[in-house]
Structure formats: C-alpha cells, structure tokens
Amino acid sequence: xxxxxxxxxxxxxxxxxxxxxxxxxxxxxxxxxxxxxxxxxxxxxxxxxxxxxxxxxxxxxxxxxxxxxxxxxxxxxxxxxxxxxxxxxxxxxxxxxxxxxxxxxxxxxxxxxxxxxxxxxxxxxxxxxxxxxxxxxxxxxxxxxxxxxxxxxxxxxxxxxxxxxxxxxxxxxxxxxxxxxxxxxxxxxxxxxxxxxxxxxxxxxxxxxxxxxxxxxxxxxxxxxxxxxxxxxxxxxxxxxxxxxxxxxxxxxxxxxxxxxxxxxxxxxxxxxxxxxxxxxxxxxxxxxxxxxxxxxxxxxxxxxxxxxxxxxxxxxxxxxxxxxxxxxxxxxxxxxxxxxxxxxxxxxxxxxxxxxxxxxxxxxxxxxxxxxxxxxxxxxxxxxxxxxxxxxxxxxxxxxxxxxxxxxx
Length: 410
Description:
Elements: E1 20-26, H1 30-41, E2 46-50, E3 63-64, H2 66-70, E4 80-84, E5 86-91, E6 94-100, E7 106-109, H3 111-124, E8 128-131, E9 135-139, E10 151-155, E11 160-168, H4 175-180, E12 184-196, H5 199-205, E13 208-213, E14 220-226, E15 229-237, H6 241-254, E16 264-273, E17 280-281, E18 284-286, H7 302-321, H8 325-359, H9 361-370, H10 372-383, H11 388-394, H12 396-403
Parallel strand pairs: 1-2, 1-11, 2-8, 5-13, 11-18
Antiparallel strand pairs: 3-7, 4-7, 5-6, 9-10, 10-11, 12-15, 12-16, 13-14, 14-15, 17-18
Helix pairs in contact: 1-3, 1-7, 7-8, 8-9, 9-10, 11-12
Protein name: Geranylgeranyl reductase family protein
Domain FAD-binding: 22-303
Pfam families: FAD_binding_3
C-alpha cells in the first residue's frame, strides 16, 4: 500500500476508510486537473495521478476560446503568450483575407505552462498529486476489491490505490476509456511544430492567427503566435499520413517558415466518440480526450476537456457518496445525460459542419471572409457568447443549410 495511506508519524491509520480516496483522477491534463479541482473544492480526498513529470509538452495549438475561459477556476490567471485580434483565412494558400476585431477574440497559451497552472489550482484546492505513475488498469470486482463501493486502481509497479470513484482523463489512448468501453468514430492526424523565429517575423504575426483550409477533405492548417515562437500545424483524417505530411511541408514552405529549425516537432491522433459511446462504468467516469469529447470540425479539445472535467469531478463526488451500486449508477447516468445534453449537442452540430466543410470548403471560406454575419458568428463563438449549436437553433438559414447535409444527429 502507498505511503499516502500512512499517518504523519509513519504508522498506518487504524480506520480502514483513510486508506480509500474519495476520488482518484487518472491524467493531469486540463480534463483531469479540472476534475480534481472540482472534487477537491467539494471537500473530498482527491488523488491526481500523472504518468509524466510536469511540466510536459503536448501537441496542441493552445487556443483558449470563451468556453475554455469561462470554465477555469475562479481567480485563475491565464498564462497568455498572445491575444488574438485578427484572423487571416486562406483556401490552400489562395484567396487570403484578414478579418479584424477591436476586442480580443481568444488567447494563446503554451500547454506546459497552462496545464501546470491548472494542476497547481487543483493542489491548492486540496488534491494530492503524484507524477511518474502509470495506471495499468482499474478493477471493480475480484480479490483486489473489498466491497462494491470501492474501485482498485492498479499501478505499473504493482501498487494498488483504492477509491470510491475514479475519473479517467488519461488522453485519447485512454486505458480507463478502454475499461469503460468508449467507442470512437472519427480519428484525425495532427502534425505540429514549435518554431522559434526572429523578432521581425514574430512582430508580423503578433495578435494574428492564420487558418488555412487545406487540400485534403476536412483538413486545415494554422499558425498561432506565442511571442518569439510560432505554433504551426495541420490536421486531416487518419489514413492519409503521407498526404498530411506533404500538406504540412507545403504549408510551412509557403509561409516562408521552412528555413527555421523547430524546437519541437510532433504528431498525435485526435479521436471523437460515437454518439452512443458510454461515459461511465460502475464507479468509473471518463472525460475529455479519454471520453472522445472534442469538437469534430475544428478538433478543438481544451474547452471540452475543461467542461467535461469539471462535471466529471462534481459527479464523481456524488458517486463517492453513493451507498450502493444502484445509487452510483443513477449518478453516473446523470453525468452522462449532462454531457450529452450540452457537449453532445455541440458535437452533433460539429459533425454536420465537418461534412459541409469536407464537401464545400470554398463555400465556407467565401461565407466567412465575405459575409459579415458569418464573421460576427465566428466572433461570438470564439468569445463564448454563443455556441455553434445555439446559432443553428436560433438562425433558420443556418439550420436549413446544415439540415441539407444530413448525418450527425442532434
């Protein structure tokens, strides 16, 4: 048993309940840190497990839109590297047009700094952090589990951690997600580089991002400025690795950035859940990438991680308090309903937007760059004053356009 379960003088506690955490969160990214924060602020004993040492690099553009900002802990200070007031749109390098806003559209962060700050907020709220720990599996039945109110979290070294509830936030290749039975129906490949640039280049990009609608169906590229570094990336459906790599190389060359040596080059897969994919099993919940929760069109995941993580932490507290399996299942179903009613609806609209974008990227580009109401809608979404789902619901023209696409459900 871990030393976390010993009293301060080194002797084991007499009360067996002190050896059981109320909530164990697996993964210390935005979803896991948010879950740990929510459970800790409710006064519960929370253990946050992370396989890496923090801070650690994550492939991510680092855009913080309104819904992300609104889901942060009270008083949280964003470690912003830039504030975006302008967006340059292009169609595979052509028909370039820049739209500007007097107010900030969204902020940009480096993920190592952002994630570390979220974890710090969770630990200040009372969560205990353990890094360098790999979870191999969770068990809800069998000899390792003393009763139906307990989940065994088994670590790679053979140690077993006991919990009343577990939140899986261990990324898109989640072992907790596999335990829950998460099903995925959209997998995309993202390639990204962190490119240090001279001051003259950095100044040209300050306060402005580029979004390029790419040559592959559903693909796009981006440039996000972060002081003396540009985050440059592309994303497209998995299965076209060679073409995606060529797009990335052409994209950086076209922008005059291929001559600079990247500080980091990376690739990763993003995964979206199916609409009927489970979000829980027994006393185990999943959130963020582990649940396949992200926006299908843009593949934006930070806001989904923060929002689902907070809800997972809140419902994990209720599951931890559940006296029996029936009540635990009721709380888990309530969590799933809350996710589907909010993020699930947004994902359904995002799927339709992706289908429309795959079929008619030039039309989407023309509308965004030439039709002011479309730009205004983009601004409202990035600032968090509305969502794509609300726009479709409240504007008949947009609703009819997406209805003609079909698929995706609502």
